[in-house]
Structure formats: C-alpha cells, structure tokens
Amino acid sequence: MRPFPKLHRPALHALGAALSAVALAGCGGGDDEATASASSATLTCENKQFAAGTAVSVPTSAELATFAKTYTAAANTVTLSGSGGLTVNGKAITVASTCLVKESAGDMLMLSWGTANTVGAGAIVYDSHIDFRAGGISGVADGTIL
What we know:
single chain; alpha+beta; six-stranded antiparallel beta sheet; four-stranded antiparallel beta sheet; 4 helices; globular
C-alpha cells in the first residue's frame, strides 16, 4: 500500500491539509514510531502516517545517501544532506519524521515536519512533507506546493 499523503495528494494540494484530514478520517494508522541512527543524527519514522502493512522504516545511512542532493521544484530549492538535514529555499527545517517506503516502482523517502494532526483511528498527517524519489520531489513545504 502507499502512504496516506500519496493517496490523497490531489486533495491535499488542491484543498489544503484541512480537507485532507477530513478525507482521511476513516483510515487507520500503522505501528508505533521506529528509530534508527544515520550518521551522527538520530532519525525517527512516524509509522502512523501510513496504512497498516505498508513497508516503511527509518532509512539506513546508505539508503539516505541515495537521496542526498539539491533538488529544484516549482522554483523552490530543496537540499537533503547525507545525514538527513533538510533546507528549503535556504531555511533549515526541523524534520519530525524520516521514513523510507519500499514501493514496487522504487523506494520513496518521505520527510515530514510542522504540526502533526491526528485523524480517524489515530492516523497522523503532518502539515508539511516532501516525498523524494529517483525522478525528483513532490509535496507541500510550509504551505508551498512543490
């Protein structure tokens, strides 16, 4: 299964995070948070962002390194460091959740931050997230659609 933000990205982008939370109200969440260490930083993955059974984990240092670079999307510059540090348009972001999602089309790294909203049967939806894939990035960063 795909993570909730991917399933509801059109609603999230078109109508904002509030409407997305309503759309997710009937969905359940995954397991509790997982933690792991990547380089010197300790990363956590809030599994409740994903449907139960989704192949999700905290990325290893090697997995994180495959996404580490500077991206440009919708006139925004996003830089992900090899240790999981994130900057958007030069502003350092305090990431709350760093999750690697195993998908048949290739791995996706999802970084989430901001307000964590609880919806439905305990699912979590953050008001900002970026999905990193081999082909680029997408998401909502502090209200800006990427």
